[in-house]
Structure formats: structure tokens, C-alpha cells
Amino acid sequence: MGTQGDNFRVVAGRYRLEVRLGRGGMGVVWRATDQLLGRRVAVKELALDETLSEAEARRWRDRTLREARAVAQLRHPHIIVVHDVVEDDERPYLVMELIDGVSLADRIAARGPVDAAEAARIGVALLGALRAAHAAGVLHRDIKPANVLIADDGRVVLTDFGVAQVAGATTLTDLDSFVGSPEYTAPERMSGLATGPASDLWSLGALLCTAVSGESPFRRDSLGGVLHAVVAGEIRPPAQAAPLLPVVRGLLERDPGRRLDGESAERMLRTFLETGQMPSVERRSLRGALTAVLRARRRP
After folding, report:
1. Catalytic annotation on 142?
2. Exactly one of 62, 88, 142, 174 is catalytic; which is it?
């Protein structure tokens, strides 16, 4: 796979893999050097299921490369920049900008939860990133603290767009495609129903809870417990989320049609950052409910 040089592996004749930065269910991320342009980059070596047949593996690679190229078209200050998508020895690689910093998960583990204001700042950045991605027809499908990078200069960067996941609805039989994050997965996706941008917003609601408390409200001792908590259990946001409660509760609405939309969530979080007060969504919700009742009464 690739070529060797100075004990480093070089893929696509250009990218020298030097230090492994991390490993996840989707593959391995390397600190690397683009030898053509002389710049540091991050290279993600996507894992291949060795049990697939040759034809299935080819379809997986084709789909992965196609989705990766779609993500590479995204341009937003809070979305990781994908420089290149290559294939070497029949394995896909993503070449991305190298972020000097840590993931939100590592930051919480090392320094504890963040305060409400920092969580709101992170939320605003991620909502902007999701708005750009959704407008381009790209769903992230794996929003969680490990996939949010906090750069040394404070920049918030959404990474790992799940390009190796099957597009569309995901059922419980596909849980291995997002190992480690069922507690951030929307209930409609858990139930195998159609998913859309609202599913990413649910995940963001769970992430905000984790940011301020250190733990997802859906964490349980078993996978079955997590599934029940997401799909049917009582939703109890942590006490630390009280300053952001209207947004958190709005995002953690099980009915995607009633879930708080991204524009409203971003506006509310910005208001909180500017004034220290969170606007209520109750009046908006009540007005919507009354409008629905009046429309129903007008129907034959």
C-alpha cells in the first residue's frame, strides 16, 4: 500500500504519512506532508471491511469517493477543509487541513465541561457549519464531541462527515457504522425512518448537553439502554444546561417536524451570547399550535 521512503509510507506518490494522530471506527488519521506543495496536512485512511466481496468492496470505494468529493466542495470557516480525495492500493484517503488543537471530547476529558457561554459559542459555530452543509445536500450523521475540533486559536471546526456511511436511512442493523455515538443519534434514525437535516440538529442538542455536563443525557450502561433512552425514555437535560434549556429542549424534540430549526437555534444562542438571556420559544410554539388548530377548524 503506497510507497516507502525514509521509513515513511507515501500514498498517491505525494502524501508522506508521518505520525498517527488517532484511530476510530472509520479509519486512521495521520499527520502527513504534502511533498508536492510542501505543506502539513492530515490524511484519513478509511477502513475497509475485509469481509466484503470484491464487488462489494468496489461499490464501497466508489460510494466513499463520491461522498468525499461532495464534502470537499463545502466551504465554511467552521467545516474542515478537504484538500484532496485519492485512492491508493484500492483504498480511499482524504487529505484535509491539519488543525492544531484538540477535539471537544479530549478537551472535556482533560479540563472538564465548558460553561454555558462557551457551549453557546460552539453551538453557533456548528449551526453555521450545518447550515452550509445542509444547503449543499450533505448530512453529517455523526455529530459528537470527538468530531468537533477546538483549534488553539479558538476556532471551532466540524470534521469527519461520515463519508463512509451509507446515505439515507439507517436502521439498528447498521449500528456498527457509527460505533461509539448511538447516544448522539436521532430517534428517527434509530427507528430506521427517513432522516434529514433535523437529525443532525438532534445530535447537536445532545452535544450541547455533553459540553456543559461532561456526559450525554442518553448515556446508559448498555446499548439497549441507550436505544431506549433515545427512542422512548424521559429526556432529562442536565442541570448545567439550564441557561440554554429552551434551545436544548427544542433540539431534543423527538418529532422531527416539531424540532427547533437551525436558524431559530442559532438566533437564540446568539441572543444569549449578546445579552446573557435566553429568549423563550414557548410563545412561538403556542402561536404555531393555535394556527394549526384554526386551520383544522377551517377544513371541511
Report:
1. yes
2. 142
